[in-house]
Amino acid sequence: MIDIRDLTLSYPGRTVLEVPELTVADGALTYLIGLNGTGKTTLLRCICGVIAPAVGTVLVDGTLVRAHRTTPATLGMHLDYRAFDPRHTARRHLRWIARARGLSTVRVGDVLEMVDLVRVADRRLGHYSLGMLQRVGIAAALLSEPQTLLLDEPLNGLDIAGIRWIRELLRRLADAGTCVLVATHLLDEVERNADHIVILGDRRVLTDQPLAHIMNALGPGESSLEDAYLRIAGPPTDVASGVAP
């Protein structure tokens, strides 16, 4: 479980996100959605302790997260598919991650099997496709058998079979009691698989609701999560001008 209270995330000269209160529950698949620049990755990095909030607290499974300290033992995360040495094999990379976190390397074989990389586990990562690198990152996140799992855009680069695989994996983990929080832009996949949705925008949480509630509240002319999102978050801004088209 993730508990956030009175959180402010800032970069020099500007506030990125303010979250007075947010709880991400165990046993649920929660999707974090919002336009680029709304603070999704920043929030995930804060939950992991990679960056420190200006004010506020984050607890993961009852443990207070302190930036730049040891990651809570119950937390697994995959935030960047580029965070690897291309000279390493997948097996070596996962063993390195396990040792860095004080975990047994025995589970490396298990997670390689879970992400279907056993056949290529001894191939250098520099020769992996984007989809394969995503699987390596997910494998690393699962090394600790986490109670709480964070994934940032894990669907990028996956083919049809890969998307179906991760859909089933996330569903299985959530149904087994894991707190799963995933940032993505793929609203069709969110609508297909989410239990709960958190929408970020305008430097705050715009919606924190079960998917069923959002879909049951669709208005006239609305038929999808995309329609609901556009109503809640407003029209997308033009990247170049910073204004709505």
UniProtKB/TrEMBL annotation:
Superkingdom in the source lineage: Bacteria
Record keyword Transport present: yes
One GO MF term: ATP hydrolysis activity
Pfam families: ABC_tran (PF00005)
Keywords: ATP-binding, Nucleotide-binding, Transport
Family: Belongs to the ABC transporter superfamily.
Stated name of the protein: ABC-2 type transport system ATP-binding protein
